[in-house]
């Protein structure tokens, strides 16, 4: 899927070899930082959908500038909604808080490089099913930017060429992928691609179960419905009994 492959692990901004040379910073004066970043992405013909990571196109200091730009625009949104941000002490700093929440917290997975993952060789030639979960998922839907909260389980069938990664790293990779506006179907594929690339297993299974607040808080206001989806790769596709074993290990609600 175009643009869903993970961003290579490298410093946010240093590697400029494969992208067009940047204009003199002095000539950037007055140009919003978002425009500068977007121009770089377009010049490199890179997708910048809501669930794409764009860290390698952001120069040092630009995230801070983006924070200021988003604050200003959030303030304009509040004013357009006729909220008295001058007189109402509760909303006086809301624009800044929301900007920080989006850029530094809930959508950070768009702006930072992937977590560093130490990979170990599979010295013991492990070849038994391994399952990690439930890992808590915190994301937001790209349609309404409403929270998506849930859990996911990851099954790995290693082979002797598989890299072994620390248990906590599955949660770190999940946080990086889910920390973007997502739709659940694409989120699990992005995560599966990333884990497959890091570990090169014989088989990989990812199951995600989540509540979408765009269906609970607004819209149809259905509090109880959840979305469950899965990605099966390699031996999990071919071997029915392995798939059954993995699914049987999940808590009953996801079976
Ligand atoms: N397939 C899928 N749909 C999602 C996901 N998250 C939210 N949605 C749905 O995206 C849809 C957006 O549809 P629209 O018709 O444009 O939005 P809307 O008019 O506000 O729709 P309602 O929510 O029905 O009021 C809604 O049906 C959401 O429930 C997701 O991860 N996957």
From TrEMBL:
EC number in record: 3.5.4.16
Gene Ontology MF terms in the entry: GTP binding; GTP cyclohydrolase I activity; zinc ion binding
InterPro entries: GTP-CH-I_C/QueF, GTP-CH-I_N, GTP_CycHdrlase_I, GTP_CycHdrlase_I_dom
Stretches for region Disordered: 1-31
Pathway: Cofactor biosynthesis; 7,8-dihydroneopterin triphosphate biosynthesis; 7,8-dihydroneopterin triphosphate from GTP: step 1/1
Gene Ontology, cellular component aspect: cytoplasm
Domain GTP cyclohydrolase I: 72-249
Family annotation (SUPFAM superfamilies): Tetrahydrobiopterin biosynthesis enzymes-like (SSF55620)
Keyword Transport: no
Record keywords, A-Z: Hydrolase, One-carbon metabolism
Domain of life: Bacteria
Recorded catalytic activity of this chain's protein: GTP + H2O = 7,8-dihydroneopterin 3'-triphosphate + formate + H(+)
Residues spanning the signal sequence: none
GO biological process, one term: tetrahydrobiopterin biosynthetic process
Keyword Hydrolase carried by entry: yes
Name of the featured protein: GTP cyclohydrolase I
